[in-house]
Amino acid sequence: MTQDYIERLHNQSQRIISSPCKANSSQSKLSVLYPGKLLHTIPVFVQKGMIPPPGTALYKPPLGFRGCEKQLQEIMDLLPQAGLSENMATSSCKKCIVVGNGGILRGSRLGAFIDQHNIVIRMNNGPVAGHTVDVGWKTTLRITYPESAPQSPWDYDPASLFVVATYKSVDLAWLNAMVRKEPLNLWQKMWFWQSVVESIPLEPQNYRVLNLDILRETALNFLALPVPHYNHWRWKQVLPTLGATSIIIALHLCDEVNLAGFGYDMTRPNLPLHYYETVRMDAMNAQAVHNVNREKLFLASLVKGKVVNDLTGGVNW
Predict the structure, then answer these.
(1) Looking at per-residue confidence, does 58 or 280 come out higher?
(2) What count of other Cβ atoms lies within 10 Å of the Cβ of residue 173?
(3) SS3 at position 96
(4) Distance CA 61, CA 51 (A)
(5) Of 7, 53, 114, 132, which has the highest C-beta tally within 10 A?
């Protein structure tokens, strides 16, 4: 990044962050951009007492909890809290930022601007330690699934909420073990596609379970992905990235939503995909789980409609 480019990023970020918070700004603009697809008044996290009776949910994970009701109930019985933390719930007008893991953050020196938000949402194993100058240190929500949870204990903010997205039933078994601080058994380990962290330095009050209505809303209502059909080839199902899902979460929770670290420039395959590693941009071509082009159009529409602000400018690459 050139010094001029960094200065432009910082000037834009300072202008956006220092302006007075406008209540319900992002949601009202979303309703204009996507009429008839208003955000439902559903909780972001699974609440105690909202678990559907066995067999009544329409979808299996990751779009619903069908077949996992008992495991989900066991988890909820372990968690002392299920809603927003007190400081999040009491803020009158919330400015939030969703921090993607894109390589565009490397060298941005946006950390101080990111940390000024009321709510900072991070995804998966995007590290903070060693990268605070570019990505900040504050984490309010970290949204992940077991295989992508951070391995380093330094990336778990003791004041944050750790939100688990359930992609398969064994993810709930993993969460159960993490909350209880117990090891996974060998049978459970076999169901993960890569090794998972086996100890998390957080307490039960820090854990939340993502309401899969949010993931389904992202997939079907906003990205218009195909409705899943359950068969032996279900692993080929196209799903939204947790980045796109986290933006929908922010739109549920926040009055104003900003983004940083989003955007795939597929015309420049040698660029770093993530700010914290050397994997290249063209690695996205090797996966078939996400529809990158559709997500790019969706995010671009949010930026153009001023539903969200893109602090790093990668969405419109």
Answers:
(1) 58
(2) 20
(3) strand
(4) 14
(5) 114
Q: Which residues pair with 95 in a beta bridge?
A: 256
Binned at pLDDT 50, 70 and 90, residue 13 comes out as very high
Find the helix or strand (DSSP H, E) in which 258 lies: strand 256-260
* pLDDT tens for each residue of 22-81: 999 999 999 999 887 767 678 999 998 888 888 778 899 999 999 999 999 999 999 999
Tell me which residue has tokens 């000024």: 116
Please report, for residues 211, 253, 255, 294, the alpha-carbon distance to residue 229 in angstroms, rounded to integers and kept in the order given.
Answer: 21, 31, 36, 20
End-to-end CA distance of the chain: 15
The CA–CA distances, whole Å, from 80 to 75, 76, 205, 208 equal 10, 8, 6, 10
3-state percent helix, strand, coil for the chain, nearest multiple of 5: 40, 10, 50
Determine the 3-state secondary structure of 286 from DSSP.
Answer: helix
Amino acid at 95: K
Encode pLDDT of 173-230 as tens digits: 999 999 999 999 888 888 898 999 999 999 999 999 999 999 999 999 999 998 766 5
Classify each residue of 18-44 as buried b or exposed e, where b means 16 or more C-beta atoms within 10 Å of its C-beta. Answer: eeeeeeebbbebbeeebeeeebeeeeb
Neighbours of 67 (CB within 10 A): 14
Q: φ and ψ at 162, to 5 degrees? A: -100, 110
Whole-number Å distance between alpha carbons of 266 and 3: 24
121, β-bridge pairs: 98, 141
